[in-house]
Amino acid sequence: MSDQPAPIVNATAEIQRLSTNWQTLLDVMPEMVFLLQEDYRIEYMNRSAKACFGAPCSRPVAESLRIIGASCHERLLRSPDFFVDDKVIEAMVDNTPVEYSSMSFIGYTGEKLLMLIMRNITQRKNFEQELLQFNTSIETILEQKIGELQASEEMRHRLSRQVNSLKNQLGHYHKADKMVGRSRKMRELREMIHQVSESDATILITGESGTGKELVANLVKATSSRDDKPFLKINCNAINDSLLEADLFGYEKGAFTGAVQRKIGKFEVVNGGTIFLDEIGDISPRMQVALLRVLQNGEIIRVGGTEPVKVDVRVIAATNVDLAQAVKEKKFRLDLYYRLNIINIAIPSLRERKEDIVELVSHFVNHYREAFKKEIDFVPKSAINRLLTHSWPGNVRELENLIQRAVLVAKDKVITEADLIFDDDPTAEQAEGAVLNIDQKLGAQPLKDILAEFEALIIEQALSKYTGNVATVADQLQIGKTSLYDKMKQYGLSAKSIKKSRKAR
Ligand SMILES: Nc1ncnc2c1ncn2[C@@H]1O[C@H](COP(=O)(O)OP(=O)(O)OP(=O)(O)O)[C@@H](O)[C@H]1O
User: Which SUPFAM superfamilies does the entry mention (predicted)?
Assistant: First the structure.
């Protein structure tokens, strides 16, 4: 055995073998490989490079590679040793986007070459471009959608402003709102009602007689959280004092003659709901004390009893009396006045809101032409002007009565000035008599309508004669109370209104 290394039998064959292996290796690589000479001319391209750029390369490709080579050379010069640039750089070779890295390479003859390992990134670039376009179009779509949303938001704001301004113009309307009138004062009144109705606070409604205090009380209750709870209306003026006390607070057995058993009063009946005390200015000092107890402590004592009973009742009171003045005159307790007057809704008189007259007239004409089956369809300007100049001391009630009479006495489809008989007019009493003029009615109206007019007149006069006492009127006319109420409803007659308008004359 020899210690000598094995002689290289065939050096040329070995170089050939290595070279072939090396070239094969380069040719199977998916990357493009270029060897550039010192003047950047292409010395070698592997199979991938040829497939991409062709061999020999076109002039523009060769030029691009020369530029790339020159830029790598800069870095090669800076590093005299073997140089591998692991940076991946993007460039364009002719029109093909590529990325490449570079390294120095020693050729067969010891010359310094530059190797470029390059990848065609056309597909990636296209994909990036598509992605960019997609993003841009998504952005455009989003911007468009955001624009549309902003526009619809602005539109919503504009509409809501319009709705608010219309609401302000019309006032707050509620289905339970039976008040006619859209004057500024009525709009403010409605706004006030809506503001205060939600709370449980006691409310004092003030206003001249006939201004619609009961309608306001109804609306307060309808717009409150107690709308679905019991609601009772008591006219404090209509019942005598001891009856009122027993009616409101109930009584114990033996409290007075006839009190054979305990009876609970309206405050207990209505527990959880609302009570409307109309004409509160007229209650006696004794009732004032009892009422103060309810408002202060939320409790009542039954007549003849000693035990207080808790009640949860919202009180709405109304008066056309100047309570502050009544307090000064010592007719009304100051402490009760304060308790009642926590929230005051003051209804303006009709002469303060004459803008409402036309609408009220049309409302009442419609109502009474239905009730009296008359075909009134016109109120001339002269008649309206006459109504506008009146001072309406009896407010809407007076206007309603006047229109009721006018509809009743009108001979034609038109209400003339002659048909307008004011309460303070001495002919008012005779006005109804005009309806009896049968000659004018013959041929103009069917019998049943003439009879209805007479019937309405008779009932109205009877109610007036017996100051609105329905039981007495029913008795006198020898009809049942229910039937009388039905007819009063049919003809739009209210015992309260008649009583008041008679008082006012
Ligand atoms: N704004 C209105 N719209 C329609 N009708 C009204 C209006 N105001 C009042 N009325 C009518 O006028 C009449 C009197 O109304 P109401 O009884 O509510 O007045 P009031 O202020 O309570 O009077 P009083 O103080 O004399 O009791 C009723 O028939 C009522 O329907």
Answer: Homeodomain-like, P-loop containing nucleoside triphosphate hydrolases, PYP-like sensor domain (PAS domain)
- The tokens for 207 are 């206003």
Rounded to the nearest 5°, which phi and psi values hold at 34?
Answer: -125, 140
Cβ count within 10 A of residue 104: 19
- Residue 320 scores a pLDDT above 80: yes
- Model-level pTM greater than 0.80? no
Q: How far away, in angstroms, is 115 Cα from ligand 1 center? A: 106
Q: pLDDT tens across 433-491, in order?
A: 555 566 666 777 778 878 888 888 888 888 877 877 888 899 889 888 888 988 888 88
Name all domains of the chain by residue range, CATH numbers in brackets: 22-120 (3.30.450.20), 196-346 (3.40.50.300), 352-504 (1.10.8.60)
CB 291 within 8 A of CB 283: yes
Contact, 371 vs 405, CB < 8 A?
no
Concatenating the DSSP letter of every residue in 90-148 gives: EEEETTEEEEEEEEEEE-TTS-EEEEEEEEE-HHHHHHHHHHHHHHHHHHHHHHHHHHH
The encoded tokens of residue 200 equal 């449980």
Choosing from 173, 178, 215 the residue with most ligand 1 atoms within 8 A of its CB, the one to mutate for a pocket test is 215
For residue 450, what are the CA distances in angstroms to 131, 214, 439?
Answer: 89, 33, 11
From CA 57, how far away is CA 63, in angstroms rounded?
10
What residues does ligand 1 touch, defined as CB less than 6 Å away? Answer: 179-181, 207, 209-215, 278, 320, 396-397, 400, 494, 497, 500
Q: Read off the tokens for 140.
A: 């455009």
Q: How far apart are CA 397 and CA 501, in angstroms?
A: 8
| Pocket mutation for ligand 1, best pick of 353, 400, 404 (most atoms within 8 Å of C-beta) | 400
- Model confidence pLDDT, tens digit, residues 395-413: 999 999 999 989 988 888 8
501 alpha carbon – ligand 1 mean position (Å): 12
CB 237 within 8 A of CB 319: no
Q: Quick check: 415 and 381 in contact, CB under 8 A? A: no
